[in-house]
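Extended Data, panel c. Modelled sequence:
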Amino acid sequence: MLTVTRTPLRVSLFGGGTDYPEYFERAPGAVIGMAIDKYIIIAALDLIGCQEYNYRLSYSRLEHCNEVGQIEHPVVREVLKHFDIDRRLDISIISDLPAAGSGLGSSSAFTVGFLRTVYALRDQKPTKIELSKKAIEVEREILRENVGVQDQLHAAFGGINRFDFSGSAIRISPVQMSSAAVQQLNASMVLVHTGIARRATTTVANQIAVTRARAIDKELSELYRLVEECVTLLEEGSAGWIAQLGEMLSASWRIKRTLSRDVSNAVLDELFETIIASGAYGAKLCGAGGGGFFLALMPPERIPALAKRVAPLSVIPIAVDVDGSTLIYRQTR
């Protein structure tokens, strides 16, 4: 049997850093962001019996194993162990964009997508919040990763959402935008690749340390404040709202640069200034920082000029994904 899932990557607009338990267990946290139309596809095929291995994994590398415990991919290994999966599997993983160091929540999107795949193998249909919480459990409790809790939610739910965190409670509030506003947003958004791939582990570890020490509470509270301002802007859709949103992105990026010395560097600062000089309303680096992609908002007619100016770096138009993690194919026999 063949099972195929599709799970979106995400861009976080505002509130990043307040989605860590180290912060929201003592102060309210909130984020707003969206799933985007760039995906991780996972295909799992039951092996038929004549192969010399019990597990084959194809991603940036190729693995052949006979025991689950021999699998080197940590998420695949631990999820199969967690659910006591003993069937022989060929698992292929492909992604629209580079998975490592993108700042687009690819690690959590993969965890959500692989869980969706395993649930399908078990003939189970989890709710979106169940899927999100299980992904958070896998990453934070089983793998002990330094991750927040927004990426799993974006990947599972899709769409544009505000997520509020307080203690152990999570509240999901879909942003109520008009179709015209969504179309305007879709036409104005691009990702600009920095040419730098960097795992967020070091940057996030430093940020968590200063969060625990309450050294950046002022900055995090300002990022939290921007969440409500963004929701109002998106839902009202008044004249000039895209330009205002861009200015807010740039403001949040300047705040974020102060959270850790690993967030930015001279190369990234120069690229940001180039994006703004090309006519963008505003921009911010996605994810924890240090590399990956800038999200930029700009008049659609200026996007070709930006692409020419930053070449050979990639400029990639994006749009909102509304489905979240989805089972797109299930062969029943």
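The CA atoms of residues 211 and 217 lie 7 Å apart. This feature is highlighted in the accompanying rendering.
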